[in-house]
Amino acid sequence: MLGIKEIEEIIPHRHPFLLVDCIEELESGVRAVGYKCVTFNEPYFQGHFPQEPVMPGVLRIEALAQVGAVAILSEEANKGKLVFFGGIDKAKFKYKVVPGDRMRLECEIIKRKGPVGIGRAVATVDGKIAASAELTFMIG
């Protein structure tokens, strides 16, 4: 298992934009599974929405992308590089993510050609799909 310090050694994101608390499974270059423990103290809950806090969909996608970035950048050949979004396809949001939820984040790299690839990503809470997408990435 990778904690915050080990994740920060792999990807450049930092608080408050680091949206992964731990990585539970990692196959370098193939897949990663991580978790985000959603707390009421997240800065975005002040405005989204104060009367009914819901984690924004774009941040769920970003959390999934960060897990995918851990999978890609943990490869020896990619250490020290960055991963950028190239596209987001087939994104769906099916279940609210609220304070107190533990969101499971899984990204499997399904296609690669040179510095470009695609990851199939799914976020779940208690086994219910909260978000899913195909994420195109570019290694820079």
Which helices and strands occur, and which strands form pairs?
Layout: H1 4-10, E1 22-27, E2 31-37, H2 57-73, E3 83-93, E4 102-113, E5 116-125, E6 128-139
Antiparallel strand pairs: 1-2, 2-4, 3-6, 4-5, 5-6
Explain this structure.
The chain is α+β, with helices and mostly antiparallel strands. The chain is built from 2 helices and 6 strands, in the order H-E-E-H-E-E-E-E. The protein has helices at residues 4-10, 57-73, and strands spanning 22-27, 31-37, 83-93, 102-113, 116-125, 128-139. Strands 1-2-4-5-6-3 form a 6-stranded antiparallel sheet, with helices on one face. A hairpin with a 3-residue loop joins strand 1 (22-27) and strand 2. The longest helix is centred in the middle third of the chain and has 17 residues, at 57-73.
